[in-house]
Amino acid sequence: MPDISPLAVVHPNASIGEGATVGPFCTLGEHVVIGQRTHLKSHVVIEGHTTLGDDCVVYPFVTLGIDSQDLKHDQNNLSYTRIGDRNMIREFVSVHSGTEHDSVTSIGNDCALLAHAHVAHNCTVGNHVVMSHSATLGGHVEVGDYANIGGLSAVHQFCRIGQVAMVAGMARVVQDVLPFTIAEGFPAHMRVVNKIGLERAGFSSSEIKEIRRAFRTLFTKDLRLEDALAAIAPEAKESAHVQCMLDAIAASKRGLARPDSATFAINVS
Q1: CATH for 199-267, among 3.40.50.2300, 1.10.540.10, 1.20.1180.10, 3.30.1050.10?
Q2: How far apart are CA 55 and CA 41, in angstroms?
Q3: What is the DSSP string of 194-247?
Q4: What is the pTM of this model?
């Protein structure tokens, strides 16, 4: 049986999983689904058609599934918020539902959203993602698995942050950050390959070398991007990770947060 505080306000149609805990002063709407053993500490507000998975921990003053802040939002639209398993969601985090009818804001499994982080409407956040204090995603942002979004950073609408990429603290991201790279600055530029992040994610030294070699060819060889892509195409046939980088470039709509001249010196060794 779930443990629901008598001081919580839970709609009778809400679904609360076995072993879940709903602390005092939480508010859960009619279409909310809470997974097994998930713990809502207190003062958590969950609205809309929102699903929160198993074994999550949600800290005070979090809001999940609240209506989109998009000015195009129509109260008659039916949209969703879907959050996976084993997520840690710290104080004052906000995750908004989709804007368009039948659209979704989604967060995967094993993520850590630290205090005051914000996930806007229609974002897609992968697994094992860390969003540090006050990190902010604009609408329709995509974040790949194992990405790390630094504190006080902001990601512009429709940008893509690739898997195992890192956005440094206080960065302003207005273009796409390729998988496996680190971006920083105002506006953010990709600087180097995220070697430490790759190691933590289980990449081998040979795989990291392949990624670094592709990054250097793309951005430090004084080649046009088209020529650099042609140069590393043979490597992509042998490396799924290099192919992942090429796929991200091909799919980019906002363009790339390409390195500036200050980046070149730190990538020559």
Answers
A1: 1.20.1180.10
A2: 13
A3: -HHHHHHTT--HHHHHHHHHHHHHHHSSS--HHHHHHHHHHHHHH-HHHHHHHH
A4: 0.95
Mean pLDDT per block of 10 residues along the chain (269 residues) reads 97 98 98 98 98 99 97 93 99 98 98 98 98 98 98 98 98 98 97 97 96 94 92 93 97 95 57
Selected from 2.160.10.10, 2.40.50.140, 3.30.40.10, 1.10.260.40, the CATH number assigned to the domain covering 3-140 reads: 2.160.10.10
Contact by Cβ (8 Å): 63, 52: no
The letter for the amino acid at 65 is G
